[in-house]
Amino acid sequence: MTNSLAITVTLSFGEKLSLNPFDRHGQPKVLKFSIMEISQSADPVAEYFRERLRMERVRRSWSQAYVAKCLSDMGIGQMHISTIAKIEAGGRVVRLTEAAAIADLFDIPLANLLGRQNEGEAGAHAKRAARRLREVLSHAGERGGRFQRDVFGAESDLATVDDLAFEGQEDLRAEFAEVLDALTRARDAYRRIANFVVPPDFAGVAWQHVQHGDGLARIRPILGTLGRWTPPDNNKGAS
User: Fold this and answer.
1) Any idea what DSSP says for residue 198?
2) CATH number for the domain including 68?
3) What is the number of alpha carbons within 13 Å of residue 202 lying toward its C-beta?
4) In a shared domain, residues 94 and 166
5) pLDDT tens readout for residues 18-37
6) pLDDT (tens digit, 9 = 90+) per residue, 34-65?
7) Which domain-ending residue is among 113, 141, 157?
């Protein structure tokens, strides 16, 4: 008869883990699990590190295999692609020496990679982020201007085709019309981007979440709301 005894372990962060020490034949089985691996899933610092590792790797267009090779070449044991994949997925605890080597590989201070910047560093980083966002918006405005010139050109070409009569005119006109539509939509999109208003507290919002050690997964939805921010109406209530 199968023994139904189960062990319940209460973890430090309040969750319970139920384990059955017997297999389906009622025989005792060896239970192996890592408290560190379990606790890592609820650790905001570990979560931030995993997200930051993946983000920095993707930003450089590096594969997991390339990162593993670089770390191996740096003397961090025999790293494999599966090791990096497990660390990013939260299935493996990153060792201190590995974290330090990853920080060196990305040329980022380890404290920064762990989301533990001091207020001055994080505040400066947030301000740089706001400045970069303004630069992106400015470039979008310039691209919108270039697309406007392309729209004028496409409109002129389409008018020329309309003035002529030749075999295949309708097909050619349809192609020009498609180009004009695509250019117009791109121009309008760039205009909307360029008109985005950076909230005055952008740097403060970014610093607030770095300060609390929030993972990037928690920060993303908050930053997404910034795009829906509406400037206050200074004339509201004025007589």
Assistant:
1) P
2) 1.10.260.40
3) 24
4) no
5) 445 556 666 655 544 444 44
6) 444 434 445 778 888 888 899 899 988 999 99
7) 113
